[in-house]
Design goal:
There is one protein chain. The chain is mainly β. The chain folds into 2 domains: 13-98, Electron Transport, Fmn-binding Protein, Chain A (Pnp Oxidase, Chain A, Roll), CATH 2.30.110; 102-211, Thrombin, subunit H, CATH 2.40.10. The protein is built from 1 helix and 14 strands. The chain has a 6-stranded antiparallel beta barrel with strand order 1-2-3-6-5-4. Strands 9-10-11-14-13-12 form a 6-stranded antiparallel β-barrel. The longest helix is centred in the last third of the chain and has 16 residues, at 196-211. The chain is globular. The N and C termini lie far apart (42 Å). 17% of the residues are buried.
Length: 212
């Protein structure tokens, strides 16, 4: 499907993978013009060096409601003016793959811990459900603005319940519900840069709860 509109909003998070090394980076969409090109924020290494060169072949992935989308492209230009950003060739086609990310499993453990310091302590937050793509969190306070990143420390299914897995995430949606004079904040978060151990944990968790 050549020259297909990507139907993405500026600022949305994308996962970029270098095809030669498999290295993955979280970037933001800065803009695109159908049939001409895509502009993204610059993926940087830990030492702040740009991870890409002109001509690099990459795969870009992003999530829809029930599918994961991906397209392959090439770095066409790297610009430092007025700031560092990367131009990609416009993809000749976009692939959609149905995933289990759409399956949201209710969480029976009422409280998890966020790796966000509040006066030196981790914040206790209720997790309503979880999927491969993200989770729904409820808290008495706003956990941050749209695009804010933090990590969830979630207990594993170990017998002593003392082990935890860390799930890095970014806030994608916030709503407020009032109950009398008090309010609760509902957050939709997307998991980002989840490693294989954390992904395996989510899969086992969903299977365990489905069987139960």
């Amino acid at each position: 499907m050549a020259d297909r509109d990507l139907n993405l909003m500026v600022g949305v998070g994308l996962q970029l993978e270098k095809n030669d090394s498999g290295a993955r980076y979280f970037v933001e969409l800065l803009g695109y013009r159908v049939g001409e090109g895509v502009i993204i924020s610059a993926p940087l290494e830990a030492d702040k060096r740009l991870s890409l060169m002109q001509g690099d072949e990459v795969t870009v992935r992003y999530l829809g409601r029930a599918s994961q989308y991906a397209f392959k492209t090439v770095v066409s230009h790297i610009s430092t003016v007025p700031y560092l950003h990367v131009h990609l060739e416009y993809p000749g086609g976009v692939e959609a793959m149905m995933t289990r990310r759409a399956v949201r499993m209710p969480v029976k453990e009422s409280v998890i811990r966020l790796a966000m310091d509040e006066d030196g302590h981790k914040l206790a937050v209720e997790m309503k459900n979880i999927s491969f793509g993200g989770a729904s969190l409820v808290a008495p306070v706003k956990l941050g603005g749209l695009g804010e990143r933090f990590s969830i420390d979630m207990p594993t299914l170990s017998p002593d319940n003392k082990q935890a897995v860390t799930l890095p995430c970014v806030v994608r949606h916030i709503s407020t519900q009032r109950d009398g004079e008090s309010s609760t904040f509902h957050h939709g978060v997307e998991f980002i840069d989840v490693d294989s151990l954390a992904r395996d944990f989510i899969g086992r968790y969903i299977e365990h709860r489905s069987a139960g």
